[in-house]
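WARN no homologs supplied; continuing
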Amino acid sequence: MEKRLHVGNLEYSTTNEELEKLFSSEGTVTTAKVIRTLEGKSKGFGFVEMETVEEATKAAEKYDQSNYKDRILSVSSAKPQVHRGFDGGRRGQRQDRKPRDDLNSKLRRLRKKF
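OK structure emitted
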């Protein structure tokens, strides 16, 4: 298990401080952050990073499926963040595709010249 935990199904009014206070009973909280939209509204989930893996495991076992502000929390190990950069409008297409050298592609290239 990782030191970083994903906390899901949070009440939308939950603040970073409340999340940190909740998990601090199980050990030292390095960071606690509720994820928000650009407008500042909570997305209903957040991340908590504990000081050690043991503290994170203990906190995940205690708070997973527990009741907090009339919501059942979902606590699990956080997956590493995947970079989703700008792809130039080629969404869903293979990026490593080489130009084809068949007759149709050669004709298309010739038509572009004229």
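The beta strands are 4-8, 29-36, 42-50, 67-68, 71-72, 74-77.
OK
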